[in-house]
Predict the structure.
Amino acid sequence: MDFLKPPISDSKDYYDQSKIRMIWNVALTVATLLSLVSISNITNSNYAQLPNIGGIFICLISLFILKWKKKYRAISIFTVTCVFIIISLTFLLIKNTPHYTTPLWMILNILITYFVLGKRWGTLFLTMHFIVVFFYYWFFFKSNLENLYKLSELDIINYIIETSILAFAIFYILGQFINSSSKAEEKIKEINERLRVKNNLVNTQNKEKEVMLREIHHRVKNNLQIITSLLRMQAIDLKGSQESHAFEEAITRVKSMALIHEKIYQSDTLVNFDLKNYLESLTTEIIDTYSVGKKILLNVNSEKKDIGQKGIVPLSMLFNELISNSVKHGLKNIENGQITVNLKGLDNDYFQLDYSDNGKWIEPNHSSFGRELISSMTQQLEGISNFSTDESGTHYSFKLKIIEE
């Protein structure tokens, strides 16, 4: 009896599976009961067999195609359309009959359409069915009542059987809908609960990793501060010499990296890096290091908040060299020094950095390492740079890439 069992859908969607089972069971049940009604009325001359035969034929075709294709949508459209045509023809062509059960067939067809094909198709067939009903009442209802034949006992039994069939089918569809909705709700609750457990686990792991990463940043910062202290101790022996300046430059570079880890450690989240605050702190550190004894105004305008985690270190080194050159050389003889930084996003994961001060840089004769480092950091950020000077000061323009990994 496996051929009477509904086909197993390839879809993993529970609603698709329930709709296939519902169509199969309704078609099989209706075909069986219509066959019994037709057999019981085979000798009843008042009974119209043609709609029943048409209904049985449609049910058998639907069962065959559903078993073969295991797809419900196309066969459902075919079935509800054929049923609509049979109901409409029954209303309009079969005369001198009360049509007690025809509206119930109409309701059954509308319910199947709504449940299987959705709101749009259901509304369409609801409208079409009621147009036919209105047409029937307007043109045929009165004459049909005037010429009704006298119902026999067999006719009454037939209406009882047919009404029972329709009641069962409507009850089955409503029950299937309620059952599917309940099971779907249970599945959703089950999935949500699994997701909640997984989210709690992920959140716990993220917090543990964040604590660990904060500790790493803190230790890196402390180690860099130790390196800075060692370099400063070594520079004391070379005070006033050319090598001493090289040590001081190395110290500022190490301190700029230590400052990155300090700011990341102090931030609310590890991905939240306050670029403006970092630049202001870095400028203060460099001014204190070189003891210029003057106030330098820093203006930072940033449309870009995310520059990529991997790009923070090379970008900070780049800023360190730019600000160091400004403080040591460009603004050395300027009373009211001013540094302006503008960051804005570009297309294709790039951003633009415009850096300028109101002085003129003079590259020291003993080394060009600072310029080489600027060029190297620009290459690490997969960017290009443009350097220029004019009467208003010194200008650097960079096109740099946001590097996440």
Notes: The chain has two domains: 9-196, 294-405. The first strand starts at residue 296 and ends at 302. The CA atoms of residues 79 and 138 lie 28 Å apart.
